[in-house]
């Protein structure tokens, strides 16, 4: 099989295929594959149906099918597996459909997607989330918070936030998701992304950008808030959830990549589900 680097022109080939896959994991969108193609060294191979090859955060090569695994014959799976170490990411639902006698599998907590109900993020209800409510209240007491869809002329405000956020991150651009986020804002329409930009007393303070993952889940690819606006993340998460159409029951905040600061932050919102992603190898 020959491999080529993922590019924007592959959208025509991959977009609808990803839409038709039943996997509920954040990697199964064209935008995700395109935006993080450098991070994961994504390539596309075509020998009949296209497949994606990538590299995990711990440096392992894997195959990501652009179809449900059970749609492939055992012979085809073994053939594809020759070009990588395993198939990834595979959901728990898909794993349950595979014959356990024919596979070996593992999972890494750092890969798991954090799933929250839209209602939880729109209310911060309950005693355990009182700190989130308090921080949001402090934001509202200090600022008049407003929001607008990311499109047209306000995209410049989102670019301003991204640059400011990168400066505040105190890390080189290669160690943050700056470049992926910049491309997401640049190609927002082509990648079918949507989101909101937020203002505090008229000043840009944060934005959220993502897309529909499936009919009941929105996946949040980027959330940026500026230091200096206390409670900004609590405000933008809450505001976004309130504005999200009610058909979306869940918001997928993606994985923590094993970064302790991200893990603590995401867990502090009490995820309703940690969606495991399995690495599956078929026995020859």
From TrEMBL:
Superkingdom to which the source organism belongs: Bacteria
Domain Phosphatidylglycerol lysyltransferase C-terminal: 21-280
InterPro entries assigned: Acyl_CoA_acyltransferase, LPG_synthase_C, UCP018688
Pfam families in UniProt: LPG_synthase_C
Official protein name in the record: DUF2156 domain-containing protein
């Amino acid at each position: 099989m020959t491999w080529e680097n993922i590019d924007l022109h592959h959208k025509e080939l991959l977009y609808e295929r990803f839409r038709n896959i039943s996997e509920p994991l954040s990697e199964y969108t064209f935008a995700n594959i395109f935006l993080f193609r450098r991070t994961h060294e994504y390539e596309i191979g075509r020998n009949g149906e296209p497949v994606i090859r990538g590299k995990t955060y711990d440096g392992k090569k894997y195959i990501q099918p652009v179809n449900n695994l059970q749609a492939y014959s055992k012979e085809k799976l073994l053939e594809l597996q020759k070009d990588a170490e395993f198939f990834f990411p595979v959901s728990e639902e898909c794993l349950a459909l595979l014959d356990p006698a024919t596979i070996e599998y593992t999972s890494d907590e750092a890969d798991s997607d954090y799933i929250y109900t839209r209602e939880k993020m729109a209310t911060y209800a309950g005693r355990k989330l009182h700190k989130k409510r308090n921080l949001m209240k402090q934001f509202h007491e200090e600022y008049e918070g407003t929001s607008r869809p990311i499109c047209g002329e306000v995209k410049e405000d989102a670019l301003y936030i991204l640059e400011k956020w990168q400066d505040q991150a105190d890390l080189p651009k290669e160690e943050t998701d700056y470049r992926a986020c910049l491309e997401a804002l640049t190609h927002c329409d082509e990648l079918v992304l949507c989101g909101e930009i937020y203002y505090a007393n008229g000043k840009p303070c944060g934005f959220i950008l993502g897309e529909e993952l499936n009919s009941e889940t929105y996946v949040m690819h980027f959330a940026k808030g500026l230091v200096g606006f206390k409670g900004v993340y609590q405000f933008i998460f809450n505001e976004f959830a309130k504005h999200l159409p009610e058909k979306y029951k869940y918001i997928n905040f993606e994985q923590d990549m094993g970064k302790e600061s991200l893990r603590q932050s995401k867990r502090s919102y009490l995820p309703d589900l940690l969606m495991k992603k399995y690495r599956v190898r078929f026995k020859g």
